[in-house]
Amino acid sequence: MTIRRNMETWIAHGRPTSFSQRRTDFASATPWFRGVQTGFWSTNAGDPRNTRDADAKEEKYCTGLYIAGCPPAGRYIDAETVISSINGPDNNLKLIADRERETRHSLRSRIPIGIAVSKDAAKPDEHGVQTFPCAIPEGLECVALGWYMITHMWVKPGKNAKGHDTDVWMARLEKIDLAERSWWSDVKWADQPQPSMEDRDFTTKAAKETCQTCQESSVRLFEPQFVCLNKQCRDWFLVNGEHADANPANLVYHHRFLMERFDRFDQSSHDAARGFWDFYPNLYPPPDQFFAKNYPDGQGPQVSVTPQNLAARNEALLTGFSCPQCGLTNSRVDYHRWHCRNTDCRDAEGNVKPFSYHAPPPRVTPEFLEAERKTVKEKAEKPFDKLFGYLGTEELGSHILYVFDFGGGCRMTILRPQVGSVAREMSDALFQRVQEDGAAGRLGLSRRTITANGGAGLTNHFVENFGERYYLPFALGDNPMAQAPEVVRDALDLANVYTWEYFGPGKNNEWRFNELYIAAYQSRKMHMNFHDDGEKKLGPIIGTWTLGGHATFKLCIKPQYDYGRKAKDSAWMKPQEDGTIDPVPAGCTEEDFRKELKARFERGEIDGEQWTAQLQEHMDQHMADPNSKKTYAKRSLVSFNVEHGDVVVMWGPNTQRFMEHAVECKSPMRFAITLRRVTENMATDQQWEVLNKRLVTDRAFTPSWAVEVEDGVNGEAEDEVRPGGKRVKRSKAEKVVKKVKVETGNDEVQGEDEDENEAKPAEAKPTKARVMRSMSKKGKEKE
Q: Average pLDDT, stretch 389-409?
């Protein structure tokens, strides 16, 4: 009653016990499968569980399979058996060999392998056959099936996209736990008792036959006809001289091959499993084990964080988890806690109460982070005065200023607080307050959903926005500054004091920030890739304030201005209608040639078409030089360390137009406060509405089976009968996400997108540096 006859489809008798709405959540929470773009997972090099062969070569283990769409011929899943490939024909030879070796190592050592199935595996292929027998519930990306043991491996011939011969390895696996019926088994068997272990047939084994061509014995895979599995045989995997996969009718697995079961009374396999997975037979670590490993400081009265283990502790806090109440896998989305997004997550009494566990990162001081910094080796960055564009140093109040001019209206100033100064004391205090409010959840710091590589991912930092609303491809909250936490308002006020001191009052108030974006970086692996803040409805001055750990700040010229085009196959720059041409930013590729070519155009010696042709010819030759190894990648023009208390101010009319910046975190605890001036509403009402909805779905997920039931008479909740006959109390689903309120103040200026060629207000320029106390009342009064 477990075999699928003719690959029939089923109606599942139950619902998934371990499920994922997003692939990134599955990978974050699943110890046996961390990949987001692969169907095979194995132990990492250096894993203490790995063994060594006779030649002392490390032997890794296959630990998980992820079965998705585009199935290779011969894939099969029933209630207790899985047959799948472990590589594709287009994988390179080394990867194929590695996967075969790692899978065989798991086979020999009897190591359990976790299996998950994508929603795409339940879709019919070109022959109308679906790998997974039943539908995956709507809204889920994948489901975890359970622990499996490999019983057979064989190789069949394949061809890659270039038509070259290659190997495709197949594996047969059995579900280890046979005591409980698989939730995906057909509903027509639900009333039949599940066979006990004593009633199971562990004696029937796959048949074997001898090939008449090579005289080698092979397992009988298919019912219609025997195929030889000997790769050296001229009839290898052929049926009547034709590849067996060529006709789907050949690929009906032999009943004995499907019915075979390894002996569950042999405890050696379970002993091996427990020795490898400390949470076996559970598919995921139970809560006490998970928290003991990933949040040890929350398990006892003594805090044991040291400079030596801070990085590892913070890394562990980023681990996702499988909800112990409902089975939904969750990434670590909130800065201060592990929280289940399932709005139908229920406690032991059946009440809607999503699982949540408060576990903020440890609070540290700048001095503690300096001690942690000494535990790792770092490449020394150049001093400021050795960097491209450096103009000089000034003193202003509590800060030392490092001033840069990259030419073409691109400027930057770094404000570094002096040792023992008021500015340093204020940064120290803000760092402690931000950590405190973040740990309490008052800042709303969370990772936001983004689209990456064709799927849903999460931002590489915890973030929230305050003040004027900022429009990004991911959803940020609408948090007016008047309602923001006090630490946010204090940070904005203090930043505006600093910029007022530097730029002077100025009638345009370009320096007066009204939007604050706070990001928490909790790991050295968290970073911000190259980007600009060049939206037309932003002022030209952008500030970023570092609190806590240090980072590497980088600036690059955008590829279209660095090389003359964005990428190898993209269009070259052309003269604009207003007569402007290549801006030739300082430090760009082939700067001298491009300056001269631009001068010739401006003198009228060549026209626009000639300019474009000569630019293309010269740059093509330069980029094609085999000795230069040039690419169109973004290259750092300037790279330097930003330290605790540093405020980097990027200003000038073209800094965001011609340049991009990136930040590489070098510390396990850093906050970055980005400050901007929003000059107009950055989106339409419809765009804000889309982001508001996305903000809600970021924070919550409702499974398709969670049908809201209205309260009965006298407030009594109606019963819900779940698949399998289990009866639970249902009350009206609680709202776990507060609806985002959209502020539509009358003082908002609605306007069209600003034309790049339109005249802009005169840029703010720094006044002559003068010594004054950063938090002086006099300064605030002048503002």
A: 96
Which residue do the tokens 């000997």 mark?
230
- Asked if residue 373 is part of any domain, the answer here is no
Structure letter (DSSP) for residue 723: T
State whether 6 and 103 are in the same domain.
Answer: yes
Quote the CA–CA distance of 519 and 517 in Å, as a whole number.
7
Neighbours of 737 (CB within 10 A): 13
CA-to-CA distance for 458 and 24, rounded, in angstroms?
8
State the Cα–Cα distance between residues 476 and 489, nearest whole angstrom.
18
The residue from 653, 674, 697 where one domain ends is 697
First to last CA, the chain: 80
pLDDT by residue (tens digit) across 443-468?
A: 999 999 998 666 778 999 999 999 99
Identify the residue whose tokens are 């002559």. 768
CA distances for 444 relative to 294, 447, 755, angstroms: 22, 10, 35
Q: With DSSP H G I counted as helix, E B as strand and the rest as coil, what are the percentages for the chain, rounded to 5?
A: 25, 25, 50
Helix, strand, or coil (residue 94):
helix
Q: Are residues 549 and 501 in the same domain?
A: yes
pLDDT band at 1 (very low <50, low <70, confident <90, very high): low
Residue 675 CA to residue 31 CA, distance in Å, equals 38
Tell me, yes or no, whether 641 lies in a domain: yes
As a whole number of angstroms, the distance between CA 689 and CA 449 comes to 16
Q: Specify the pLDDT at position 579.
A: 74
Looking at the 3D structure of the chain, how many domains does it have?
5
Query: Which structural domain range is residue 117 located in?
Result: 1-48+59-191+261-285
Same domain, 408 and 518: yes
Q: Residue with structure tokens 């940020």?
A: 476
- Cβ neighbours, 10 Å, residue 635: 16
Q: Is residue 308 part of a domain?
A: yes
Query: For residue range 37-67, what is the model confidence (pLDDT) as tens digits?
Result: 999 999 999 999 999 999 999 999 999 999 9
DSSP secondary structure letter of residue 207: -
Tell me whether residue 741 is in a domain. Answer: no
Two tokens at 364? 């540290």
Within this chain, do residues 126 and 269 fall inside the same structural domain, yes or no?
yes
Three-state secondary structure along 242-309? EEHHHCHHHCCECHHHHHCCCCCCCHHHHHHHHHHCCCCCCCCCCHHHHHHHHCHHHCCCCCCCCCCC
Burial 594-618 (b: 16+ CB within 10 A, else e): beebbeebeeeeeeeeebbeebeee
Q: Which two tokens stand for residue 9?
A: 């489809």
Q: Are residues 576 and 601 in the same domain?
A: yes
**Mean predicted lDDT score pLDDT of the chain:** 88
The predicted-structure confidence for 329-372, as pLDDT tens digits, reads as follows 999 999 999 999 999 999 999 999 999 999 999 999 999 999 99
- Do residues 206 and 351 both lie within one domain? no
The predicted structure's pLDDT at residue 763: 45
Query: Cβ-count burial of 157 within 10 angstroms (0-12 exposed, 13-18 middle, 19+ buried)?
Result: middle
Which tokens hold the place of 236?
A: 């290898």
